[in-house]
Give the backbone structure.
Amino acid sequence: EVQLVESGGGLVKPGGSLRLSCAASGFTFSSYSMNWVRQAPGKGLEWVSSISSSSSYIYYADSVKGRFTISRDNAKNSLYLQMNSLRAEDTAVYYCARVPGRVGQYDYWGQGTLVTVSS
Amino acid sequence: SYVLTQPPSVSVAPGKTARITCGGNNIGSKSVHWYQQKPGQAPVLVISYDSDRPSGIPERFSGSNSGDTATLTISRVEAGDEADYYCQVWDSSSDHYVFGTGTKVTVL
């Protein structure tokens, strides 16, 4: 069974940093692109970042470029999102999601981890 | 940047058909994916590549894509279909994924 479990969310002050993790199981992690998607309270879905299976292709939304860094460790079946210079508008539930290909549909999602940026 | 526009809400009686549109410039040239999200839950893929239904998704869900509009159709709507629905594409000109604005489907 495919499982994606996010962790690392919490309350952080503006300007602070946080590192999210996504633990994958039930599939060959190294064969899939992975993504982070966020959803602010009461709002729609917003794509954050993508990383290809071998980390050769990395993309960021304009809203996070230069502040967030996506990475993965295929040996540990894990995806990461390093978030720096956090702002109030980064407050959201952050989901990791799997893509069976370099780009395409998100066929599995985690349950999300809440990040709250507030003083 | 590429923009996908959806109606904020669609209301439909049980047993009837709901159609949710997703508008974008020449969206017919892109592959469109649709997600269902119920309150407090993660999104679930219901249609991929315009009209493919993943395993486990009822045949009542179907999709089409042409010109400037993609459409998700839910036939014989049930109370359990009440949810938010989002379209999504990969915009190769910007190397960005784009989500639609989302549509809340209410079953009357």
Observations:
- The longest strand of chain B covers residues 83-91.
- Chain B touches chain A through 26 residues (CB under 8 Å).
- The CA atoms of residues 63 and 72 of chain B lie 5 Å apart.
